[in-house]
């Protein structure tokens, strides 16, 4: 896993040389370790061009549940309070029962 400094230097070197191979060689000689894969490096470039940063994007947090799903599930448990959560989620195609409020 590359550090933020290593990613930043890669982006800087790439814009200087315009070559992934040359940048990988420079990475190897500077940091004395194997460079990350081409795909990783291209992802860093894309991320830098889109966001201006090489920092990892944080997730959006807890997945949202539509009010329609909440109402439907509450209605189901009002009708059948002894029904298991797992069974109801399987019937209603809810991926993660923990995502419910």
UniProtKB/TrEMBL annotation:
Residues 53-91 are annotated as: Disordered. It holds the Pfam family DUF4817. Signal peptide: none annotated. Residues 3-54 form the DUF4817 domain. This is DUF4817 domain-containing protein.
